[in-house]
Amino acid sequence: MFASEIQMIKKLGVRGLLLQGLNIATVVSSGLMMWKGLSLATNSESPIVVVLSGSMEPAFYRGDLLFLTNPANTPFVVGDITVYKIPGADIPIVHRVIEAHDVPHATKPDQLLLTKGDNNDADDIGLYNGAQWLKRDNVVGKVRGFLPFIGYATIAVNDYPQLKYALMGGMGLYALFNQE
User: Fold this and answer.
1) 101 is a catalytic site residue
2) Is 105 a known active-site residue?
3) What span, in angstroms and rounded, lies between the C-alpha atoms of 57 and 96?
């Protein structure tokens, strides 16, 4: 069964295998460079996120892919949908701004925000780790657009690690044996 693949590897030789490895490294590094370029262009550490819960239904559903920007000098207004991270938590939260206040006498323009999920009964004060308001520094970005249900692939890969390894292994084998 694997005899033909082993023959192909022997036929490629060390030089061919190194070339295939460099091709894989080029694809991976190109993807990382595009991500970093997009991060710089949008001023957001994570310019694309996936909705993981139903707290923003009916505006966004689980699996929707969101596109973010984080304009540095543009204040948030009531009604903006933001993505923010709580210090110490890894998962970003997508919720709508229900109150926004400018910080007087700040050394740089700053805001304090109060958010709430459209599908939630209460605001997010309980999520802010004891703080009364969300600081602008915690905001990852403002939602500018979305693609419905595209993020389900990401959710599936996170929920089923075996799927992630199978996909990575399949792509690696394809790249190794593809001689184009």
Assistant:
1) no
2) no
3) 11
* pLDDT, tens digit (0-9, with 9 covering 90-100), for 89-129: 888 999 999 999 888 776 766 889 999 999 999 998 888 87
17: three-class secondary structure by DSSP: helix
**Residue 70 in contact with residue 54, Cβ under 8 Å?**
no
Tokens of 133: 């308001």
Q: Is the dihedral angle over the CA atoms 8, 9, 13, 15 positive or is it negative?
A: positive
* Of 44, 124, 137, 159, catalytic: 124
User: Is the whole-model pTM more than 0.70?
Assistant: yes
Q: Clarify whether 95 is annotated catalytic.
A: yes
pLDDT score recorded for residue 4: 73
Q: Which of 4, 29, 30, 55 is catalytic?
A: 55
Q: Which two tokens stand for residue 39?
A: 């991060």
Map tokens 């605001």 to a residue: 123
Do 98 and 114 contact (CB within 8 A), yes or no?
Answer: yes
Catalytic-role residue among 80, 95, 110, 137: 95
Q: What strands, in cross-sheet order, belong to the sheet with 111-116?
A: 48-50, 65-69, 139-147, 81-84, 93-102, 111-116, 134-135
Strand segments (E) across the chain: 48-50, 65-69, 81-84, 93-102, 111-116, 134-135, 139-147
